[in-house]
Amino acid sequence: MAGIYIHVPFCSRFCNYCDFYSVKQTGRIDAYIESLLCEIEQRRDFFVKCNATPTTLYIGGGTPSLLSPDQISVITEKICSSFDIHSVDQLREYTVEVNPDDVNRDYLLRLRSVGVKRLSMGIQSFDDEDLRWMNRRHDSAMAKEAYYTARDCGFENISLDLIFGYSLLSEEKWIKNIETMLSLRPEHISSYQLGIEKNTKLGAQFARGEYSPLSDEESYLQYSTLQGMLADAGYRQYEISNFALPGFEAIHNSSYWDYSPYLGLGPSAHSFDGDTRSWNCSSIIKYINALKNGDRCFQGERLTSRDKFNERVMLSLRRADGLDIKSLQEHCTGEDYESFTKQLKVLLRQGLAVEEGNKIKIPSDKLFISDGIIRDLFI
Description:
- By secondary structure, this protein is α/β, with parallel strands linked by helices.
- It has 2 domains: 2-257, TIM Barrel; 304-379, Orthogonal Bundle (Arc Repressor Mutant, subunit A).
- It has 15 helices and 15 strands.
- It is globular and about 55 Å long.
- The two termini are 28 Å apart.
């Protein structure tokens, strides 16, 4: 399994918490697409080198729904022709991220007509006060309307996002958010704790003492509430931040966590071929100019055996399925594995990890602190 990710870096408004690379320069969309098509051509041998075939396509951002369906169609056709995909229907999954306020019935029908089968919709909250604080462009009513319109247009696989762990979010609000989400019954739910990033409006407010984050205890309570309510509603948690109805786990995102190759296209996008990680420049101007001149716009680094070991541990333990010990042993030296097992025994005694057959897993009630647990297992 392998995937292709396309980063659309345009936003008409910046959320106060988001540090993904994005720009408001929507006047550069045509130039961006022209450069993107050149990059696709430039990297058409990527999967040949790692002996893989792309089976998923994910267009994210930024705000991909600022592109017209015709522009998305041009990108789709170029992807198919460049990577030996005879028809978009060959893809196991084709996802486009959309903002609720960008989409209407005509837009969504046209998106379906170019082969998009799955939507990822950035709801983030169903509370209008919180949405205004986040600087989102939609309100709760728009979010619900966009979701129902997508259903009417034939989308049978929709993922919705929710954010928790910020100071405005009381437990009462959070439960109401989850209840509203469950009333819609999307196939997939992603939920992330709000982080404070330096190069954001929220980061600046925090640095000035104008924002106090929710305590770790309160954030943990919200995460536990989420886990319990979604489990009771029939959703399976298959990764730290992701929940799905049976059979609707995100195929594309899973490729990031199972060490499959993936190609990232567009400014700031990352790629992995099994041995090397590479990343594109985080500048729309540099990106456009480089591709216009036929230059490559990415740099990379070859992973050491230690890098690969640690990444395999980290990515595997993010998933509910856990870490396959036999697979890990096949990709490390005896000395490295001995160091790993020594620390693992400590975590097992502390109940921070469990052993089930040939798998090591982080217990569900410890996933909230998984970053620290995983770091303790690095060599």
